[in-house]
Each structure stands twice: as structure tokens, then as C-alpha cells.
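Researcher: Before we compare anything, I want clean individual predictions. No alignment, no superposition, just each chain on its own. First chain goes here; please echo the sequence and then give the C-alpha cells.
Model: Echoing the first chain and its structure:
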Amino acid sequence: MRKFIITASCLFILLSCSTEVFAQYKFFTGGTLKFLSTTNSASDIKSNAYAISPYIGAAVSDNILVGLAVGYEGLRNETNSDNYTQNNNLVITPFARYRVTPSDKMGLYGELGANIRSGTSIVSALGVETDSKTSGFGVYLGPGLDYAFADRWVVNALWGALSYDTSSIKDVDNSTSTFGLNLNPASVRLSLNYLF
């Protein structure tokens, strides 16, 4: 118990007695980029996933940052050029971060955000395509870490999330809902920020 109290006290002092790089700048911009390609030799299914999500944000207080990301994501699964599924979405993500600074170059934060998606889904079977409109909404809460490696440059790592997501296809009485907690180290999302 004594070790816990000493550790907690040191952590509290470290978190409350630091200056930060973010204090001298009010706004930030950044983004994430994703590409993943998978081939399954047993089923001959090829999958390609991609996403780009630039964002801009502002510090509204010493500990609270808010931002907005507008991005595009896609996924294509195919067995050949006549048989595939393809999903393309515009994604709008407002987010807020509560940030504490254990040192002048590093920050820890919790991020709460919402994903609003709108797009199309294409299914091709034997060369016959069917297009559908899709929509989705999700919320997430996850821990993150940022590090200022230069005067105006910061790298972020958002690690997993507790999330809820729902998606539906227009004119089809079917929707999919997902709830989960993902703290897998492979789910770390890195982004690069420029402060101004």
C-alpha cells in the first residue's frame, strides 16, 4: 500500500507541475493515412482497405482540445474482376481530448469522438453490379499519447478504443451494430500534427 501511495503521489506531482509545448500554440492540424492489402490463398480472396483522414483542431483550455476530421475510406474484397464487394465512405469525425502533460514534450489524453459515415456499397456477382447507399454512426473513447519531437511538430498515438458502431443500407431492412473494447497493440493509430 505504501508503494502505491508513493507512486500515485509522484505521478500526481509529475502531471501537475509541467509546462507544455501546446501552451504556446492555439491550433493544430494533422491526419492519418491507412493502406492494408491481404490475400487469402485458400479462398483466393484479395482485400484492399485504405483511408485518409486530415483534421484540424483548437485548444479551448489548458487541458481540452477539440477538432474535426473529414476523411475518405474504402474497402474492396474480390475473388476475380467479376465477383467483388466494394464500400466507399465519406467520414466526418468531431472529437474532443482531455489532455494532461507529464513532461514539457509529452502528453497523455483521453479522446471521445463520433464517426458519421455516408457512402456506397457495390456488390458484383458474375459481372452484374448492384449499388446501394450506406450510412453509419459510431462513438468511441480511447487513450492516447503525444510527443513533441520539434518546436511545432507532434506525433500522436491513439491506442484502441471502447466503441459502439451501427451501419445500415438504404432501402434494406437490415442494420449492423457493433460494441467492443479493443486495446490490442496492433490497433495503435499514429498521426502527425503541426501546431500553429
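Researcher: Okay. Second chain, same rules.
Model: Second chain and its structure:
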Amino acid sequence: MVFHFFRTIKEEKGNMMVESMVATTLIVVGILGIMSLLARSSNLSHYASHSFQATYLAAEGIEVVKNMLDTDISRGLEWGASMKGTPPFCIYYNTTGSGTSLPSCASSEQIAFNPSAGFFTGPTVGGLYRREVTIVQTGTAYDVVSTVKWKEGSDQKTVVLEDTFYPWRTR
């Protein structure tokens, strides 16, 4: 019986090495798969974050135009008195309507998060986002298109929001 046991071990010489190589290969493939999923998840998380921020910045562009129209009425100006200039406009959170021309965009103007202020400010160079607001008068209404662009890796991403404002208030 003892002789049979040693004979079996001698005949299976090298099988343990093959089994350990196969097991190691399976473990490495599994770990690489998990690492690939984690990297992809991280990229998608960054894209989702940038997309949400761009959507809010585009909405802010429309809200600033709405505020300018309301300010015109409250100051006793004509409906849309602040909507002058050549689009696209670079509108920031503190852009005010004063019956003068809106600022046109320079090709390098961008919006960046200002940590000391706690919000996005512009114009700046080196920011991630670029917002352009186009205002077109259609009869007495104003069609507003707010476009925010940013680079995600080598791809150019864009968020576009639109709204139409009608003169429902009178002086």
C-alpha cells in the first residue's frame, strides 16, 4: 500500500505546477477585469459630474437673461432694452442689464469654479467650461439658447438649454 502511494506521486510529477499556473492566470484575469471596471466607473463618474455642472451653468445663463428682462421692467425701461449686442454673449452670474450692449464672447473666455467665493466665476482662462448665450428676438418674444461646452478627455461635450420669454409685464 505504501509502495502504491509513492508510485502515484511520482507519476503526477509536474501536475501541481500546471495547476498553480492555471490558478494564477485565472486570478490575474479576474483582478484585471475588476480594475478595468473601476477605471471605467471613475471615468463615467467624472463625466456625470461635469455634465450636471454644465447643465446648471446653462440654466444659470437663461436665468440671468430672465433677470435682465425683469430688471428692465422694474427700472422703467422698454421690454428687452438690455438685449442689445451681437450674439453669442458671454453672460456670467453677475451680468446685469442696463440698457447697454451685452458682452460678446472672446474665444478664450471660460468659466471656472472659484473656491474662495464658492461659485463659478468668469471670464477666466484655463477654466473647464465655456458658456455662450444666444438671444434672438422673434416678434416681441426673445428666444434664448444657453450652450455650455467642455472637454472630456479628447472629446468636446456640449449641453444646450433653450427658453422663450414673452412680454407679459408692462411698465
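Researcher: What stands out in the second chain?
Model: The chain has a mean pLDDT of 79. Additionally, Strands lie at 110-114, 119-124, 129-138, 141-152, 155-165.
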